[in-house]
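User:
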Amino acid sequence: MRVAFRVRGLVQGVGFRRFAEREAHALGLEGWVRNDPDGAVSGEAEGPEADLAAFRARLAEGPAFGRVEHLDWRALGVGSSLPRPFEIRR
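Assistant: Predicted structure:
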């Protein structure tokens, strides 16, 4: 399964991308994460549905110094063109 996500709140300058990368690696997910110009963080991830559910829960919590106000999560279906391992895009 493949998903797109977008996280808003205090998510830039608090290690959120590194947090997402670490959590994705722990779950064996493929994909990427980046900072958006409007202050949000977005990305795509792919893997088994149960692992993606765990990733979603971790993103909703965020890192210790962050504050997640809203998490958009959208299923994209199945595909296999995402980076492996999960990476931070600049």
